[in-house]
Every structure is written in C-alpha cells, then in structure tokens.
Amino acid sequence: MFKELATLFALCAGSLLTLLLIGRLLQLRELLLNQNLGLLDVGRMLLYLSPFFLLLLIPIACMLSVFLTLLRMNTDLETTALRASGVSLYQLLPAPILLGTLCTLAAWWISFHGLAWGMENFRSTMLELARSKTQLVLQPGVFNREFPGITLYAQQADGASGELRTVFVKDATRGDSAATILAPEGRVRTDTERGEIVFQLRNGRIYREEPKGMSVIGFGTYQVKMDLSKMLSGYKIGEMRPKEMSWSQLNQIAERNEREGLNDNSARKVQVEIHKRLVLPLACLVLSLFAVPLASMFSGLHRHWGLLLALGFFLFYYTLLSLGLSLGETGAMPPALGLWLPNGVFLLTGLYGLRQAARERSFTVIERLRHIKLFGRRTADVR
To answer: Any transmembrane segments, and where (predicted)?
Structure first.
C-alpha cells in the first residue's frame, strides 16, 4: 500500500510542479528571450523556483495519493475483503500516516532551509542578469536607449567599472518634467538591496524646459535612479520580501518588531509568513488523515472524477488559508488564528469521519445518489 502511495505521490507532485514551472516560464518568456539564456541557465532558474512551489504542492500531492489509492481499493472491493478477513480501517492507517509524516518532514526542510536558498539564488541570478545587461548597453559613443525613459550617451564608457566620461543624459522618467543633463564624468552602478540602477553624475548641469524659458541648474553630484524591474521585463526585485527571507531572518525581524511594539502592515506580513511556513508542512499529515474517510464516502467513483473531487476539497482548504492570509495581513484577524484554522477544521472533520468510517456508519455518497436516481426513475414510471 505504501509503495502505491509513494508512486502516486511522485506522479502527482511531478505533474503539478511541471505545470507550475511551465506557467512561470511563460510569464518570464520576454526576459528569457531578451537575455538569450541557454537551457542550462533556464534549468538552473527553474531549480531555484522549485522549493517555493513544492511547499504548496507537497500537501496536495499527499492528499491526492492517499485519496486515489483508497478510492481504488474501495472501488475494487479490496477494502471490503480486508474487513471481512478481520482487518479494520485503523490497521490501514500506518501507510497514509507514514507518507504524511515523511512529506511533513520534507516540507519542513523546504520551509526552513530550501525556500530561502532557492529565492536567494533566484534573486541573485536576476540581479546578475540586470548587471550583465547594463554592462552590454554601456557602449562608448552610442546613444543607448535600452534603459526605459532614459537616453544615455558617453564619449568614454567602461562596462566593467561603470565609469563614464563626457556624459549626456535625457531623463524622461518623471513624466512631463523631462530634463537634459550634461556632466564631464559619472558612473553607473546597481543597488542590489533596493533593486535599482543608479546613474551618478558629477560637476554638471541640468537643463529643463519650462513655459517661460529654459532653466539651468548646476550640481556637484546628481543621481538618476531607475527600477531594475524595468530592465527585467517587469520582474519585481526591490527590497527582500518576507517570502524570500530565511527562517532566522523572519524570527529576528519578528523579535525586533515585538520589542519595538510594531504592528503595522510589514510586521503582520512577517508574522503571517512565519505561521504559513509551519502550517503548510503540517497540512500534509492533516490532509492525509482527511482523505481516508473521504475515499470511503465516495466509494465507487471513477478515478478522474475522484481527482477533480480531491482538487475541489484542496481548493476549499486553500481558499480558507488564503482568507486567513488576507485577514492576518490586514489585522482583521490574528495571523495565528487565521492560518491555523483550516488545519483545525480539516483535522477535526477527518478524525470524525475516520471514526464513523471505522464503525461502518458513514454513508456512501455514490450509493445514495444511485438510490435517488433509481427512486426518480420509479416515480416517473408510476406516473
């Protein structure tokens, strides 16, 4: 039984992960085409994204494997034969519990270590792509228009250090107040923490056209900043978000917020992320137990309908979890209550259903539907 569970789990997890990664590839297609990345680089980026998706996919794959395995056993009357030979439903639980426990441990490792590793490397790869593209467009004696809203010309440009000589910049990033900047020297650098490209010019002048004429302003140092996301086809870099942080970073920020008495939106997001990384791994075990009586209830259902049914129940679980996330971030509900509530509801429902199924008191929905259909036919014949 455990072998069948493990096989179905690997099949479900692999299929869902492939679909999600293909979807993310389609979102980043412009970035990948513009950067001319090879297959090895694309594969490396997908590897970095995998922990983020696996944290969500492992619970659903665990639930699907348990549900489909027991549904097949019930449909083929294997469970009935086992009960007739004296094997109770409780004696079938070790295999689903073992699978749920192993999945919980794997998801915990991803939550505490793998997620931060993947997001950090993915972010570093994106920043390296931005740096590479910045160096490529810094060609001396050429009007570079690769930076959205900025036209850059430098008589001399060093792509490695970013140093510029005799610089002309047309800054149209501020809408109607476009400015022309001339400077004898400058430098281009990338601010990785804030996710920005910074054009730092020295000892120049700013020419700005106004209704009454032209204004000229001299400066010692002037900076033009541009979001790196515009260089990466809209991929958001910016400051590191809670979902990209490691477990230790989240706890350090949470402790600091508690000491300072902060309860703003950013502090609540950190609390929500901490609880989410604990809730999702435990969902593997909770959903495995929930799937056992669910399979008994829908005995006789075809596999493809069973797959849709299990996906529907997980969608309901994820809806409750998403609602808890939203309410926790807005402060309408404590993050602990909002995120742990779905696990509590499904655990209690699963334990009650398991108790009823073990006593053979649970009704089979499929049989009830057949009785209703048969009753409807008889009523029609009488009429």
So the answer is: 52-71, 92-110, 278-298, 305-325, 337-354
